């Protein structure tokens, strides 16, 4: 049995998703952090998530590490699972977040 499979607490999952969306709305999360959080909230490993979203594992790893330069199409594939798409946000000032 997969050791990652645990009893699901839907209230805890909903709270984690709500906190994710609130952080996104406030601009408190870097893109790399956001992608990593989406994947973790989806309860998938990097290889599983990359396959699920139709992107290469190498691209996902680069994006999550903050070293990637993904195309908008790739960004939209990642965000689509949470109803998100690539767009402009207010830039964080140095020293924030």
UniProtKB/TrEMBL annotation:
SMART domains: HTH_XRE (SM00530). It comes from the Bacteria. GO terms for molecular function: DNA binding. Residues 35-89 form the HTH cro/C1-type domain. This is Transcriptional regulator.
